[in-house]
Write a structure and sequence with these properties.
Strand order of the largest sheet: 4-3-2-1-5-6-7
Distance between the termini: 34 Å
Number of helices: 17
Radius of gyration: 20 Å
Strand content: 15-25%
Bound molecules: NADPH dihydro-nicotinamide-adenine-dinucleotide phosphate, magnesium ion
Shape: globular
Length: 381
């Protein structure tokens, strides 16, 4: 049984993680929960149902509110970054599920690795900002990073322990989002309401917007490079609107292994929680007769500029991916607040990358402080 710390418990991944635990008694015990502060009611319910020792709310006022509500319990309530770091060090936990949104997850993830916790990684922004640093640290500390993102969980399962020397290509699938087939001009007037309607997945607002711009696929290309140690030119994006094939690996001998399943995040979450075991089914079984035909097409990189931009940032290396991620976080938040238009998201990321490219130093090797220096100006929390 796992003993978990769940960062981002009130979000889409967080609540689905708790649902997997609810439906599979014995799979994991919850030692700590953490959230941002937007949903104190839900946090209170989660504490009463899962009985963690500690609950953290980043926002101090919301944490005080939770503390008052929970005064009939023995739960310790903490707040702020210090609270998040403290639960990542908990002696009696062995896994940290990183399901908080955005690069604010970087410090807690680093703390968890240094404290030798297995990482179930949903928070892709962290790996995009500091992939090289995180992977090196995890190797030094001998900590496993188990992907939760469905595509990366699929690739991880297809590889089944084989190294990058066996890989010819990674076929990273994408649903194409709600605007598949649209032209760039048509995208200009997209509203937050339209962007927040995803055809196959129900997710938080940030990643749903990223799926609509396909910035999410750019982030996932970068995430794949770091998780699996492949070169950028080995990662091919394949649009597969049915979201049944969650990704595939083409090996050097031409054999292609794909992983399939219903589009339900509880499947990759369960895979990470019980790895390397396979327990009982939580999601609906896959009915291929009902889902057929499965189709595959090339992405429209002229419209969805996020993909060539990510490839460029990856090839440049160093802190370029951090700038790609950070400028996107700010742009998405501004789009959701109706301060900029949908296609301005690409423009803002492009501008940030151009500006960074014109700057003085582009260190190939960087420290964590360097990452904070280039990303802090874009922080939204
Ligand atoms: P949500 O927006 O649904 O949830 C985000 C969670 O993070 C909430 O619990 C939120 O708390 C919490 N949070 C926000 N800021 C802080 C903070 N400063 N300190 C602590 N907690 C904080 O996002 P998702 O669940 O959709 O996504 C989470 C991560 O997983 C993202 O990185 C995303 O890219 C990735 N992912 C998500 C998938 C999905 O299907 N949803 C699929 C693959 C990856 P509060 O409720 O209080 O705001
Ligand atoms: Mg994904």
């Amino acid at each position: 049984m796992r003993h978990i710390v769940l960062l981002g418990s009130t979000g889409s991944i967080g609540t689905q993680t708790l649902d997997v635990i609810r439906k599979n008694p014995g799979i994991a015990e919850v030692k700590a929960l953490a959230s941002g502060g937007g949903r104190v009611d839900l946090m209170e319910q989660q504490v009463r149902e899962f009985h963690p020792e500690t609950a953290v709310i980043y926002n101090e006022a919301a944490a005080r509110d939770l503390q008052v509500r929970l005064k009939d319990t023995s739960v310790r309530v903490l707040s702020g970054m210090e609270g998040l770091l403290e639960i990542c060090r908990m002696e009696n936990a062995d896994m940290v599920v990183t399901a908080m949104v955005g690069m604010i997850g970087l410090r807690p993830t680093v703390e968890a690795i240094k404290s030798h916790k297995t990482i179930a990684l949903a928070n892709k922004e962290t790996l995009v900002c500091a992939g090289e640093y995180i992977m090196r640290l995890a190797a030094e500390e001998q900590v496993d990073i188990l992907p939760v993102d469905s595509e990366h969980s699929a690739i991880f399962q297809c590889l089944d322990g084989r190294g990058p020397e066996t890989v010819r290509r990674i076929l990273l699938t994408a649903s194409g989002g709600p605007f598949r087939g649209w032209t760039f001009d048509q995208l200009k007037n997209v509203t937050p309401e339209q962007a927040l309607k995803h055809p196959n997945w129900s997710m938080g607002a940030k990643i749903t917007t990223d799926s609509a711009t396909m910035m999410n696929k750019g982030l996932e290309m970068i995430e794949a490079k770091w998780l699996f140690g492949v070169r950028p030119d080995q990662i091919e994006v394949v649009v597969h609107p049915q979201s049944i094939v969650h990704s595939a690996v083409e090996f050097t001998n031409g054999s292609v292994i794909a992983q399939m399943g219903v589009p339900d995040m509880r499947l990759p979450i369960q895979e990470a929680l019980e790895y390397p075991k396979r327990g009982n089914i939580t999601v609906d079984p896959l009915d291929l007769f009902q889902k057929s035909p499965l189709t595959f097409e090339k992405p429209d990189e002229g419209t969805f500029k996020s993909i060539p931009m990510a490839r460029w940032a990856l090839e440049k290396g160093g802190l370029y991916p951090a700038v790609y991620n950070a400028s996107n976080e700010l742009a998405v938040s501004r789009f959701l607040q109706r301060k900029i238009g949908f296609t301005d998201i690409y423009r803002e990321v492009e501008l940030a990358l151009e500006q960074y490219d014109k700057g003085a130093a582009h260190p190939a090797a960087y420290t964590l402080e360097d990452v904070f220096e280039v990303t802090d100006p874009f922080l939204t929390v």
